[in-house]
# Entry
Amino acid sequence: MAFNPAGTELAVNGYNEVTFWEPSTGKLLRRLTNVTERVQALAYSPDAAWLAVAGGVPGRSGEVALYSLKSLALEAVLGSFGDVALAVAFDRAGQQLAAGITDNSIRIYDLASRRERLVIQQHADWVLALDFSPDGRR
# Structure
């Protein structure tokens, strides 16, 4: 699950979908249905324009995708993998996205170019959670 930056919307993962809810009333606002089979992580961009979705099919495939929250359209698949992506986080400026993958790596994507900028492979096991430092440098 992930709240938008204003706390007025909650995105919740599901099987092949993400649902969006109004927290104060519990009202279903909309559905995003063209997502990976098993969604493992969600993150709103700081300006609430984008939703990053990580997931896949265990042992078969994984992906990190970026969706427009205005149109609910797929903007880009930033990365595809042989196993599931488990975590995603935007930097505070909304210029980079970090993803934790079951291949024991962290991948950093530049959102302007939609390209992988850095791969960090120093982990002994799956990367289950991650975040940027407040200044965005780490």
Notes: The chain is about 0% helix and 55% strand. The first strand starts at residue 2 and ends at 3. The CA atoms of residues 34 and 92 lie 27 Å apart.
